[in-house]
Design a protein that fits this description.
The chain is of the alpha/beta class. 46% of the residues lie in helices and 14% in strands. A five-stranded parallel sheet has the order 3-2-1-4-5, with helices on both faces. It is globular.
């Protein structure tokens, strides 16, 4: 059965929901100050989610760090998003991180209450989510969030830790 026949959103519907979720998290997390955003995973959905965050009217958001494990993806997506959003992208070469530890370096550029967008393969998600919670960061994650039951239980436990810190997660 197709998604529409089951009454479920298809891929486009889900992506449109993401375009709503990112601004919602931003407005809930923002309060009285401009928010800095970090992007971990610079593939298509990651760049789209960052674009959604930067498109929020009156949001005062700035993309300040990016991380990926592939240099070509990091470079090309940085160039594309910088061209599209100009001054809303404030990422010097020293805040473009390459490698499997890049997620930490990108999140270290943020302050508690800022937002990190996690769009890496779901097998790494719990590690990244754990660090974001430790840093006091609000989080947007793309789907799928987990690949299996044990990972789902781990993520649910982490979600409780985020909730206890009053972090916004979507």
């Amino acid at each position: 059965m197709k998604h529409a026949e089951q009454g479920l959103p298809g891929r486009r519907g889900f992506l449109q929901a993401g375009a709503i979720a990112v601004p919602t998290i931003l407005s809930a997390a923002q309060g009285a100050r401009a928010l800095k955003v970090g992007l971990v995973g610079c593939g298509g959905r990651g760049t789209d989610a960052a674009g959604n965050a930067l498109s929020v009217k009156g949001g005062g958001t700035k993309l300040v760090a990016m991380a990926d494990v592939f240099q070509d993806r990091l470079s090309s997506k940085y160039a594309a998003i910088k061209q599209q959003f100009g001054d809303k992208v404030d990422i010097g070469v020293d805040r473009r991180f390459l490698g499997f530890d890049g997620y930490k370096k990108a999140m270290d550029c943020l302050k508690p209450g800022d937002i990190v967008i996690l769009t890496t393969p779901c097998a790494f998600r719990w590690v990244h989510f754990t660090y974001a919670i430790e840093k006091g960061l609000n989080v947007f994650m793309e789907k799928p969030v987990t690949p299996d039951g044990p990972s789902s239980r781990r993520m649910l436990k982490l979600a409780e830790a985020a909730k206890a810190k009053n972090l916004k997660v979507g």
